[in-house]
Write a structure and sequence with these properties.
With 332 residues, the chain is α/β, with parallel strands linked by helices. It has 2 domains: 134 residues, 3-Layer(aba) Sandwich (Rossmann fold), CATH 3.40.50; 177 residues, Rossmann fold. It contains 13 helices and 12 strands. The strands form 2 sheets. Strands 8-7-6-9-10-11-12 form a 7-stranded parallel beta sheet, with helices on both faces. Helix 7 links the parallel strand 6 and strand 7. The longest helix has 20 residues. The two termini are 32 Å apart.
Amino acid sequence: MSARGPKALLSMWSDVVGEVLPPAVRAELDQVVELLDPRPLTSLDDQVAGCLPEAEVLITSWGAVPIGAELIARAPRLRAVFHAAGSVKGTVLDAGWRSGLVVTSAAALGAQPVIEYTVAVITLATHRIFPLAQAYRHGEFVPVRGRRGRPGTRVGIVGASAIGRGVIERLVADDWDVAVYDPVADPASIAELGARQLELDELCATSDIVSLHAPDVPATRLMIDARRLALMRDGATLINTARGALVDHDALRAECASGRIDAILDVTDPEPLAPDDLLLQLPNVFCSPHAAGVQGTEVASLGAFMVAELGRYGRGEPLQGAVDHRLLPVLA
């Protein structure tokens, strides 16, 4: 490690660099690392890859070169990965974990916008704002039809992830009735949050709003299938800000087309949907383009967090965003 800090390389899409590291954040980065090349590594075949033998840390974000066997072989001094984004699953591969890399990510910071989005659309869902707005657009003015309001409305949270827990905390603080399904969560921790733990079928059958916050792993794919959608109450709303693969979209199209339930989808399968997809046409379905997460000026906060992490790393202090690879099967 040099006197200026560890020798570092960036790895992300070129057009992301300025968002993650705007001038003020880039100036702070220069105080804690020795950047081997100002350009990002975007391929193992580009010129920046010639710096890999010297690199001690990689600062990654969206579009990073996967850290697998080939990269590890070409970067014998690499010790740590600082991921200025959320999930590290597509960035650090098995060979990276086996090599003993220290990995930290800004996932917790990136969770906040999704929590805010989810709480906002839950509130709008209780008022059926989206279908009412569509009806108004087509000349029908019905300001109160279908409105539930918070009292007596149960919100079912599927997955007590960092985002899921954040949503639970916000809802409980505002006196919502919150139920949770998460087979790997400690029931005592759910109780401490002020929520009740239910099996998934019961949660679907008894919740007015079902909000998904589970990772995309084999056990969760299509977990919200035709049978569980059919369990949902008439007039209920499904919210998905997690991964599209959690939901059987053909079954969801059928349920929403019948008008029996509503849906608010920030993620879909496939993504993006075809322009003529029924989910984009139905008045009781609101689709946003994977926009719940970090956007705009928020992206710079991820870079700033990684600069702070690099400072802690250089001083030998604990990393706030350290990723435990043993938890990868249950992380997003």
